[in-house]
Amino acid sequence: MRIAQIAPLFESVPPTLYGGSERVVSWLTEELVRMGHDVTLFASGDSRTSATLVPGCPKALWRDLSCRETLPHHVALVEEVFRRASEFDVLHFHCDYVHFPLVRRYRTPTLTTMHGLLHPPDLQHFLKTYSDIPLVSISHNQRVPIPDAMWAGTVYHGLPEGLHTFCSQPEEYLAFLGRISPDKGIERAIEIAKQAGMKLKIAAKIYEEDRAYFERQIEPILANNRFIEFVGEVGGRQKDEFLGKAKALLFPVEWAEPFGLVMIEALACGTPVIGWQRGAVPEVIEDGVNGYTVKDISQAVERLSHIASIDRSTCRNSYERRFRVDQMASSYVTLYEEQITRNARR
C-alpha cells in the first residue's frame, strides 16, 4: 500500500525530547515500513525516518528561532500533499483540520487522527460541516464531547517493543513527566508526594506561554523543598531510566487527557501509574492491576501506600497486551483498507 503520513511541523519526527504526536507518527511510520508498505512522510526537514521524507520546512518550527507564524508552513505542507495526492492509496493526517477543505476536492481516501481535546463550541458545527471526513479517536473518551462526528475507529497509541527497558527493582522516588502546565496537575503531584513523604522527580518541558506559571507557582516550591528534584526535559536513555527506576508515575491531570502517552511508556518500564479518573486514564490504567485510578489527593496518597502490591511484570504485560506499535499499525491498516473500499464504492 502507498501511504502518506502527514505530521505536524512543530517538532521533528521523532522529536528530540518532548513531543507526543510527532513521536507516535514516527513509530507508526517506521512500523508501516517494516510491514512492507511504501510510506512517504511529510514532516519537518530535520526528521529521521526510513520512509521517503518530504520536508514541509527546513527544521521543526518550535526549534526554529526565525519562525513567528506556524500556520503558513502547514498550509504550504497541505498544498504539497494534495499536489501529489494521486501518488498514494491513502493520506493519513495528524495535523488537526487545516486540510479539510481540500479533502472533498480530491479522490484519494483520507484518514485524520485527532490527537487533542475536542472543544464543542469550536468544533461542533465545524465537524458537522465536514461530516463526510473520516476521523480516528485515540481513546473512546476523546469522542464524548462530540460523539456524532464521523468516527471511523479508535486506535490506541502503541510503542516499539524495545523502546523501554523493564525494571524490576525501582528506587524510592515518584516520577512526574510531561510539560509544565496547570492542566497537567503538577501542583497535585507535589502535594501527593509531600503527604506521602516520598521524593518526587519532575521531568518537564516549559513552553514560553507557561513560563510565568512556572516562575510564579512552581519555582518557589522547588526552591524550598529538598524532596523535590526538577530535572528538566528528558529523552532517550535518560527518559527510560527516569521512568523505569520510579516507584510510580503520578498522572494527576486536571483535564480530560485524550490519551496520555507517558502512561504506557511507564507501563513498558514496569512502573505502575497513579492517575486521575479523567479522560482516557480509566481506559489505560486497570485499577489495582497496573496502577490505580483515583478521585482526589487523599485517595492517591492512600493508594501509594499499597503501590508495592502492584506487580511490575504485570505492568509490563499490560503494555505488551494492549499498547504495542504493531497492534497500532495493524489497526490503522485495517482502517486504510476500509476507507479505500468506501471511496471505491462512492
Automatic annotation (TrEMBL):
Residues 171-297 form the Glycosyl transferase family domain. InterPro entries: Glyco_trans_1, Glyco_trans_4-like_N. Gene3D superfamilies: Glycogen Phosphorylase B. This is Glycosyltransferase involved in cell wall biosynthesis. Residues 18-124 form the Glycosyltransferase subfamily 4-like N-terminal domain. One of its GO terms (molecular function) is glycosyltransferase activity. It holds the Pfam family Glyco_transf_4. The keyword Disulfide bond does not apply. Keywords: Transferase.
